[in-house]
Amino acid sequence: MKPPLFWHRPPARPGPVSAALLPLAVLWTAAARRRLSGGARVRIGVPVVCIGNATLGGTGKTPTVIEVVRLFREVGTDSHVLSKGYGGSLRGPERVQESAHAADEVGDEPLLHAAFAPTWVAKDRLAGARAVVAAGAGSIVMDDGFQNPALRTDLSVMVVDAGAGFGNGRVFPAGPLREPVADALGRADFVLSVGSDGEHRRLLADWPVLATATILRGSLEPLGTGMDWSGQRVFAFAGIGRPARFFATLRAVGADVAGVRSFADHGSYSDAVLARLETEAARLDAQLVTTEKDAVRLPARFRQRVLTLPVRMVFLDDQPLRAALEDLAKRRPAPGNGNAA
After folding, report:
1. Closest CA to 187 of 157, 222, 220, 209
2. Cα(189)–Cα(65) distance, rounded to whole angstroms?
3. Distance between the two ends of the chain, CA-based, in angstroms?
4. How many whole angstroms from its chain centre is CA 281?
5. H or E element at residue 217
6. When comparing pLDDT for 298 and 336, which is higher?
7. For the segment 151-170, what is each residue's pLDDT rounded down to a tens digit?
8. What is the DSSP letter of 151?
9. Of residues 262, 268, 222, the one with CA closest to residue 243
10. What's the pLDDT at 332?
11. Cβ contact 242:288 at 8 Å
12. Nearest CA-CA partner of 228 in 295, 287, 279, 281
C-alpha cells in the first residue's frame, strides 16, 4: 500500500482523518503491547542483532543490515541474515539461493542480502534462528523483527529516516507508527538517524524524546560502480519506502531525471506496468533506471533493459556500534529462555 498523505502531516496538526482513526490506534497499541509482553524471548546461543524500526515502510534497514554484516566480519565473526521474507510465499526456514529463488518466493530484501552473507527466510523467527544456528552461523543479523517477541536479541538498532521522522506521531491506522515511539526506544540500544545534517537537526527538534537515546548518524551514499551518471538522461521508477530520496540521489550524482514514477513498497511489476514504463521512457528519450531492491522484482527478460543505482549505508562514526559488535563477537550467550531485551 501507499501510505496516506495524512500520515506525513506535522505531529501538531495530524488532521481530522487521523483523529477519527484514533480509537483503532488505541486498540492496535494495546494489542502490540500485549504481544510484546507475552513473548518467550528465547535465547538462541549466538549473538543476535536486530535491525528494525518503529514505523511502517522503509527507513534504510536493508543497507544497514548489509553494513552490520560487514562490521561483524571485521571484528571476527561471520553472520547469517535472518528475514521474514516479506512479500515472499515460502514459509521456511529456507536458505536463499540467488540463482534459484525469485522475489515472489523469498522477498526482495533477502535476495539483496544473499549477495553479502548467507541469508535465510522464515515466517517463524524462532524456527529460522534455530536453522541458522544449526547451519553454523557465528552470529545472526535479523532484518526487521523489532516487534517480534519470540527471539531474544543482544543488540537492537532502530533505524529512522530523518527526513520523514515518525510522521504525524500516531500509531497505525491513525499514523505510520507500529507502536508508540517511547515504547520502541525502550528496546533500542542505538537509534540510527539516516539523512542529511539538516534533516537530523529537524528530527531532534521535532522529537525531543530522542534526547534519551544513543544516536548514530548515517547516510545512503551511491556506490561507485564506474558508471558516469553526469548528463545521463533517465526515467526513474521505484517502489520503496521513500522513492523521492532515490530520485534525489540520481540528481545528486548528475543524472538528468526526465521523469519519475513511484510505486508501493515491495510492489510487483506487471507486464502492463512495465510496458507503460518503457513507453514513457521512450517518449522522453530516456534510459530506465531503478533501485537494487526494485531490480530483483523485475522479470529477468526486462531487467537487462534497466540500469540500477546501488546505494550503501555510510556511518558518520561507526565506532560505538563497532565496539558493541566486537564485544558480542567475544562472547556467545548461553542458550535458554531469557527476559525481554
Report:
1. 157
2. 15
3. 31
4. 29
5. strand 215-222
6. 298
7. 999 999 999 999 889 999 99
8. B
9. 262
10. 62
11. no
12. 287
To which residue does cell 537492537 refer?
156
pLDDT-derived band at 113 (thresholds 50, 70, 90) equals: very high
pTM of the model: 0.88
Residue 265 — pLDDT band, cuts 50, 70, 90?
confident
Cell (9 digits) for 83: 528475514
> What phi, psi does 86 have (nearest 5°)?
-55, 130
The grid coordinates listed for 84 are 521474514
Asked if 83 and 111 touch (Cβ cutoff 8 Å), the reply is no
* Cβ atoms 49, 139 nearer than 8 A: yes
Q: Are 239 and 261 in contact (CB under 8 A)?
A: no
Cα atoms found within 13 Å of the Cα of residue 154, Cβ hemisphere only = 23
Whether 334 shows a pLDDT value over 60: the answer reads no
Cis peptide, bond prior to residue 180, ω within 30 of zero: no
Q: Kindly tell me the sign of the dihedral angle through the C-alpha atoms of 99, 104, 108, 113.
A: negative
Q: What tens digit of pLDDT does each residue of 6-42 get?
A: 998 888 788 899 999 999 999 999 999 998 887 778 8
| CB neighbour class for 202 (10 Å; exposed up to 12, middle 13-18, buried from 19) | middle
* Single-letter residue type at 151: L
Please give the grid coordinates belonging to residue 267. 510492489
How far apart CA 77 and CA 72 sit, in angstroms, is 6
In angstroms, the CA 110 to CA 294 distance is 12
User: Mapping DSSP to helix (H, G, I), strand (E, B) and coil, where does residue 79 land?
Assistant: strand
How far is it, in rounded angstroms, from Cα 270 to Cα 231? 30
Rounded average pLDDT over 94-115: 90
C-alpha cell at 87: 512479500
Q: Return the ∠ at Cα 107 (arms to 106 and 110), rounded to 5°.
A: 80
Please answer whether residues 174 and 3 qualify as being in contact, where contact means their C-beta atoms are separated by less than 8 angstroms: no
For 286: left if phi > 0, alpha if psi spans -120 to 50, otherwise beta; the answer is beta
146 vs 199: CA distance, rounded Å? 24
- What one-character DSSP code corresponds to residue 150? S
pLDDT of residue 194 exceeding 70, the answer is yes
Average pLDDT, the chain: 90
Mean pLDDT for 319-329 is 93
